[in-house]
Structure formats: structure tokens, C-alpha cells
Amino acid sequence: RAFFQPNTQQAELIYETAIAAMGPTAQDAIVADLYCGTGTIALAVARSVRRVVGVELSAEAVDNARQNAIRNDIDNTDFVCGDVGAITDRWQREGQHHFDAVIVDPPRSGLSATAVASVVALDPPRIVYISCNPAALARDLNVLTRSGYRLLFARPVDHFPQTGHVETVAALIRDEVDL
After folding, report:
1. Cα torsion at 38, 106, 92, 154 (round to 10°)?
2. 128 CB-side CA count, 13 A
3. What is the pTM assigned to this prediction?
């Protein structure tokens, strides 16, 4: 019952675009994958960074993500079950994590006010935002760009051909970060 992108060929393009949007990543980088679902993006990123921490509300999806990591012999991932806004807020308050990049792939409604504020407070140099709702993406990009991030690009992917639906991958960088 966990969500997974139904068009696997286009999902692969979405994930490749998201990984490229992270820019050059160091082997010692730590990445957060928020709304990680079954861990697909986290597991794809894990091979090129030190650690990936995935957060997902669905316990079943978190279990799937952990099983997928084991099946793929990937041991540098952690998957946390809980509300993204609450967990990132706790991380920020407790100073538990420093992330070199944060990937968000929220539900159609976009980021909650708590989640977007907590992502900004985590202060990652890069944010990769994957969205299936252009209106929610625009709303959240407005908040992120007013909070010190610059939009590098927003690339649509025709995930559902012959429909009005599109997935978009957006790359943001903190204003003071050099390309």
C-alpha cells in the first residue's frame, strides 16, 4: 500500500534529474530525503554520499525502504517514520543534523508551513524539490526564495502522458553558495 511512482520509465528520469540537481556531492556529504516513500531516491543517492536520512509518515513505506536498502546491500541509510514537519523541527531545535542537501518530494498539497520553515532552519546549501502540483510548488518556491534560496532551475517531466499532470524537479541553492 506504499506509494510508488506508477510510470517507472519517467520516474527514473525524475530521480536522475533530482540527483543531478544536487550538484557535485562529496563522498562525505549527508543528505536528507524528506517524504522518502519506499526510499527510491535515498537509495539512488546513497551510493555517492556518506549518509542519507529518509523521513516518511507511512510506517509501511518506511518498512519497505529499510527492506529495499537490505536487498540492495546499502548500509548508509536511515529511515525515520514520522511527520516531516515535526521531525525536521526537532532536528533543528536539537541541532542533531547538518545536511549538505535536502530532497523533498511532498504529497500533492506541498510542504506544510512547519515543514518549509524547518527545512529553511536546517539551512542546507542545496534543496531539491520534486512536485506533482505546480500551484503548491510555486507557493513553496516563493517561501524558499524569500528565505535566502535562489532557484537554479525547474524542469518538468511528463510523467503522465496525454494528461494535464506533470512532475517538476526544482533545484535551489542558498544565495551565498558558489556554483
Report:
1. 110
2. 28
3. 0.90
